[in-house]
From TrEMBL:
It comes from Staphylococcus succinus. This is MazG-like protein. It comes from the Bacteria. The lineage of its organism: Bacteria, Bacillati, Bacillota, Bacilli, Bacillales.
Amino acid sequence: MDLNQVSTKSMKIRNAYHNLEEKYHGRKWTVLEDGLALSTDVGLINRLLMDQAKIWPDKLQDNYNLEYKLGEVVWWLAVISEKNNINLNEAVENFINKKYTDFDIK
């Protein structure tokens, strides 16, 4: 699955989650809330890795634009996947396929 397919399929899964949000919260999440959910997930990964290594970052980077940070997150995912002998493409494809099954998306 290439990244264009990942994007297309990811939006279908996101729409399925929007349906759940409307059901349980009466509205869809905003892009800000999506970003907060992403940062929570990334933060949890970071915390697990930092706990494992018994370290904490000493300073923040000054690259804060959205495009850069999104690229950085994908880059980090590729690095972490490689270091843990996980095929990133397969991991994403497996996640997408599971969500398609979970939400019965055709």
